[in-house]
Q: What sequence folds into this?
């Protein structure tokens, strides 16, 4: 399977498992799971064919491990805009986590902190390198440090997804460390 096809199938899966399952007639269970056979049939019926082998390849090779297969079912690991309960237990975060963004968003972030926007949680990275890659998707990256240890001590709840992304409801501005001069 070539890289272009892998990316195309991955984007299709993200759209329909995380954001718009109803567009192809899918109804995920409360945990976001759908039967693989149902997914493949629905995609085919809506003009996008892929095989089980292609699906397995996308899941196995995705650098961010966006999808999980279990017992003949598949779901996205995180990043949903639809209502799902991933069933993730609360977790104690490391002292600092990181968030990649771009300079254009810094004024709002300084005032309001990090908010989930269209997602159900704010996504944080365990290392600066990953946060840099995330921020670079939108332009020149800016990496913010999150004092997750202090947040946790102050009662904020964290979860960690199957692919290592840290999730929390929001990050108030007082827990953010901005690079460089203000």
A:
């Amino acid at each position: 399977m070539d890289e272009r096809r892998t990316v195309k199938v991955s984007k299709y899966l993200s759209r329909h498992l995380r954001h718009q399952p109803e567009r192809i007639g899918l109804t995920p269970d409360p945990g976001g799971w759908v039967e693989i056979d149902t997914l493949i049939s629905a995609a085919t019926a809506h003009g996008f064919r892929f095989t089980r082998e292609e699906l397995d390849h996308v899941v196995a090779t995705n650098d961010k491990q966006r999808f999980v297969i279990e017992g003949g079912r598949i779901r996205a690991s995180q990043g949903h805009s639809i209502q799902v309960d991933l069933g993730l237990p609360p977790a104690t975060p490391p002292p600092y986590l990181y968030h990649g963004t771009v300079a254009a968003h810094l004024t709002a972030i300084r005032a309001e902190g990090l908010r989930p926007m269209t997602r159900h949680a704010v996504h944080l990275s365990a290392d600066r390198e990953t946060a840099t890659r995330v921020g670079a998707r939108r332009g020149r990256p800016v990496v913010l440090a999150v004092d997750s240890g202090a947040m946790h001590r102050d009662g904020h709840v964290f979860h960690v997804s199957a692919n290592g992304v840290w999730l929390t409801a929001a990050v108030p501005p007082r827990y953010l460390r901005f690079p460089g001069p203000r």
In short: Helices lie at 3-19, 36-45, 52-61, 106-112, 128-136, 148-153.
